[in-house]
Amino acid sequence: MEQYAEPTQQEFEGWEEFYSKLVDEKLDFFQSEGRLFDVIFAQQFERGFLDLLCNLADMIRVLAETGMGLKKLRNLLPHKRVMLYFVQPSTRTFLSFQNACHILGLNVSEIRSTQTSSEVKGESPEDTIRTFASYVNLIISRHSEAGFAEKMAWVLNQTERPVPVINGGSGPDQHPTQAILDIYTLEREFRNVGGLDGKKIAMVGDLRRGRTVRSLSYLMKNYKDNTLYFVSPDVFKMKDDIKNFLNKYSIPFIETDDFESIMPEVDAIYMTRIQNEYSEGPSSEAETYPEFHFKTKHLSMIQPHCAILHPLPRRYEIDVVVDKDPRAAYWRQERCGMWIRAALIAHIFRVEEEIFREFS
Fold first, then answer.
1. In this prediction, what percent of the chain has a pLDDT beyond 90?
2. Of 15, 59, 74, 175, which has the most beta carbons under 10 Å away?
3. Residues belonging to the active site
4. 57 with 336: CB under 8 angstroms?
5. Identical fold at 9-174+337-353 and 176-274+283-335?
6. Mean pLDDT of 65-74
7. pLDDT, mean of residues 4-10
8. Contact 142, 245 (CB under 8 A)
9. Residue ranges per domain, the chain?
10. Which CATH number fits domain 176-274+283-335: 3.40.50.1370, 3.40.50.10860, 1.10.530.10, 3.30.70.240?
11. pLDDT digits 0-9 by tens, 161-195
12. CATH number for the domain formed by residue range(s) 9-174+337-353
């Protein structure tokens, strides 16, 4: 990305105006030379790029199976450094990013709590991120505040060192790399049944606050003839912004609170947990909404090829016995995250062609 003059305080104060814009109006800001630079929104991904990432992830998987192939991968980026700034609890996203970086030879630093940084002394998040940018070539952020990753990218892109930012989860807002790993998982699960086009996908549980299902819904504009089923209690229904987006792109969706009625119809079931961490008041553990759980008895009700997904962690939404069924794809889904994130990082650092040459 081109170098920028040092921003003035007045320029930094333009954040609220920028943040209020429609996402489509902001996408170019997060590109450099016509390529992805920052990864903030699921809306940044188009079909051709998703297909490229899935293909690249497959190649990285194959290379990593052998010592020689893994050595070639680790020789791609040993001169680059990355910061994992994960101040919201995370297991899968953190570990998959960490291991994706290791596969590509990146040197990794990490901060898992604001209590271990100078923010505890009163340093602003903006200054903290600029400090990271002084030392690393990529920042991957996970934060409980909606819009946090976007603001960090906005700040850095106006400085003399605009290193890229990847949104690893931003409040109940977006989780774009979860969305691409979900696409990669579904693409692999459906390879023997015609691919991802023309499928019926159910999203179940806390759809109002579930950033995974929200982000995945945005990506559906890239696929043909799909129908989404939003299955949830009334209090956790999908927000209007997603439904308006689907209407804009003529993507049909059906809302229902009758989970069992749609089980025989769908090609994939995406389960989610109730997002208690975003509760505005005391949450009752008694409110488990068992009618929205996938139980062992339901295995006989779904299609032979139906893929069962879950972004994890789970609590009680899926019986553990279901894990033994070959249609339970959530553990494969978890592993897909490492490979697709490695593909994304390889693209950001422009080394994908070196991987493609191994298969030419």
1. 82
2. 175
3. 92-93, 121, 142, 175
4. yes
5. yes
6. 98
7. 48
8. no
9. 9-174+337-353, 176-274+283-335
10. 3.40.50.1370
11. 999 999 999 877 889 999 999 999 999 999 999 99
12. 3.40.50.1370
Task: Return d(Cα 59, Cα 160) in angstroms, integer.
Answer: 35
Q: Are 145 and 167 in contact (CB under 8 A)?
A: no
Task: Name every residue whose Cβ is closer than 8 Å to that of residue 322 and which is 6 or more positions away in sequence.
Answer: 294, 295, 296, 299, 308, 328
Identify whether the C-beta of residue 281 lies closer than 8 Å to the C-beta of residue 302: no
Cβ count near 306 (within 10 Å): 23
Summarize pLDDT for 71-101 with one digit per residue, the tens. Answer: 999 999 999 999 999 998 889 999 999 999 9
Asked if 161 and 134 count as a contact pair (C-beta separation under 8 A), the reply is: yes
Distances in Å between the Cα of 251 and the Cα atoms of 181, 227, 246, 283, 334 are 21, 7, 5, 34, 27
Looking at residue 12, its pLDDT comes to 53
Tokens at residue 240, please?
């209007």
